[in-house]
Structures are given as structure tokens and as C-alpha cells.
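Here is one chain, start to finish.
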Amino acid sequence: MPGGTTGAQLSRKRWAFAFGLVTSLFFTWGFAYGLLDVLNAHFQQVFGISKLQSTMLQLAYFGAYFVWAPFAGMFMNKYGYKKGIHVGLSLYSLGAIFFWPSAKFEKYGGFVGCTFVIGCGLSTLEVAANSYISVLGSSKYAAARLNFSQGFQGVATFAGPMIASRWFFLGKNATTLDTVQWVYLAVAGLGVVLNILFYFCDLPEITQDALAEEMHAVGLKSDSESFWKQYRCIFGWVAQTTYVGAQVGVAALAVNYIVDQNIGISESRASQLFSYCQITFTVGRFIGVGLLNFLDPALLLSIYGVGCSVFSFATAFAPGRAGIGTLFALFFFESICYPVIFTLGTKHLGKHTKRGSGLIVMGVGGGAWYPPAQGSIADRNTRLSYVVPFTGYVVMTIYAVGIVIHQAIKGGFRFRTIDEIAEMQYEIAEKPESPRLQDAEDESVDKKSDAEYVVEVA
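Its structure:
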């Protein structure tokens, strides 16, 4: 096909292979992110720094997204997804391997610099993987697909704190960096292995031209406007910025929050409880996959946004075990938010798809601003600092509710998720005066793969 390839044109075997391989990337950065939050508390012990100073790790990691993600989007726009993945994995491994000298010479600044390089690599992978999974099939199930893939990120995210609770905080490891350097050497090795696998794999390139052609065939020509008039994407960046900032702030100080509830919980035990919070998050994400197969993504995001707002506010004021309980509830309601914001913001961008993906991933940079703001309050009162993420969840909820209202005005309230392109194709096919378009629809149906079916079953 002159315009390139879309996910719907892949065979079941090629679709499953591409989906599985790209999904493996989510585990990679989930593991790195899970370790990052636990390192905050560990470095406070080893280097004798404040909670605010420890959030420099988050500033470096998520600041890299803000700086690098737009360049990653432009790179993939020119060279494609596969080369973007190679660049991302290379930066990821390079940053991880320099954790060794930073730990050897006990330089906190070195850890911050290495974290920035890792962040650049992971932002590149996020632009590639999130966008690729989103367009790898029907837009009806885009949010469900991305939640399923990112569920494996959640698995890795709680594996990080679980390892840390066993190796970072017990015995002499509580005051040394010996285990940190070995863990990150293994992380670097994982990046190298994945890079080799992607080099030898046949990863089908999903092109923007093909996506645009699929849209134009049914009369959707929103991408004919300039990129800066793609308002759902622009406001999606705002929502993603505030949401990720809130999520990162919640996780960065979770160990401190649990310990500071003054109910006799040690740092090692708090790290274990934090890993259980991440398990709750992961379970919530897989539950979200099932819900998103039937419910409208914007509607579900609105409901979960309200849940995040309510429980973050409750976490700031609930004492003792009640506060820990509201923290667990908050992690559950966070579960679907990031992937749903991404798919809503990049939906039907056509020729702007990769640029839009870069912008939405740039929103991850919000994780650089919220933790320092929260940390400055946490140095005086950890519990009260959870008012800061509450503001981010409110903005995200406004974005989701705005889309629900816009959809209702245009075509009526949506309770169930729909495939807009398929519905427009059906409407065209029903018109007797459009035989040429009917033929195009028949040809499209013949070429369609089983990708949509596979995701629906999952």
C-alpha cells in the first residue's frame, strides 16, 4: 500500500508478535521507576539529605521527559519507531551502567546525572511504545490495549520496591550503596539484551500516512488543521502533566508517609507496603482493561479522576492506618489514568500522530515539578503534603469531563466505547449513492486482521 501500514492490516501472527515485543518495553521502565521511589528514602539515610533534596532524583528523571520527549517524537517522525526504540534502549543502558561509579565513589550528584540519562532513554521508549500500541488496531480498543501493555509496567514497578525491601534496607545495606550498583548493572544488561532482540526482529512500521488515509476514507479530516489546533491533544498534554506530577509525588514520598504515620512501621516494612500499593495499582490496571472494552474511556477516566481527587485529599488528613488505607485506594484509582489520557490525546491525529505522542509524553515532565513542591511541605508535615497531588487530579478530571461533555454535544452521551471509523464506514456503506466508497469499505474489511478480536478477548 503506498501510504504504508496500519495495525488493522497486519495478520494475527504479525500483530501478536509486534504487540508482545513492544509490551516488553513497559516492564523495562516500570522496574527502573519502581526502584527510583525507594532510592529516595535510601539516599536520605546514606547521604544524610532532606526529603526535599532526595526529590532531585524525580526532578532529573522526569525533567528528562520534558526536555527530551519532543525530540524523540521528531526523531521517530523521520526515522520510524524501530530506530527510536534502539536510541531509547541505548540511553537507558548507558545511564544505568554509570550508577556503578556513582555508587563506588558515593556521589549523589552522579546518581542525579545518571537518572537524567535514563529518563532520556525511557522518554524515547515511551513515545515509541505508547504510540505504537495505541495505533496497533482499532481506536475502539486503544485504551484497553495500552492499559493491558502498561499492566506489565505495573508488575515491574512493584518488583522494584520488593527487591529494595529485601536488599536495600536490611543490615549493613541500610547505610551502604553496594547493592545499588549491582542492581543497576543488571538493569543495564537487560537494556542491552532487549536492544539486540529488537535489532533482529521484524517490527512492522505503522505509518502516519496510512493512519491519515484510513481517517480520510471515511471523511475524518481533523488532521488537515495545524498541529496547534489539535486541542484534544494540547489539553491532553496539560492533563498528563498535572496527573503524572501528582502520581509521582504520591509515590515518591509513600515510604516516608507510611513511616511518619507513627504506628510503629519500619522503613523496610514501609517499602514492602509500598510494593503492595503498586500491586493494587497493577491489579486496578488489569481490571481497567476489562472495563475499557465496554465503557467509554473519557467517561471512565472522569469516574477514576473523581476517585483520585477524593482519596488524595483524604490521605492528606486521615490519621494512622486510615491514612494508609486511603493511600491504597488512591493507587487503585490512579491505575488507568496515564494510558487513557494518552489514547484520548492522540486519537485520530493522522499525520500528527508521532508529534502528538511526543507532546503527551512530554507531559510526564510534570513529575519533575510536583515532588519538590510536595517535598518542601513534607519536611514539615508528610501527611499534609498530599494536598499538592490533589490539585493535579482535579485538572485531569476537568479534562476528562470536558471530553464527555463535548462528545455529548456532538453525538449524544456515550456510555459504551465505540469505533468511530467503523461506524462511519457502516454509514457510508448504507448510502446507495456511494458505491465507490462501499467498494473501499469491502476491501478494508477483507484486509482487517484479528487484532481487535484478540484484544477484546484479553
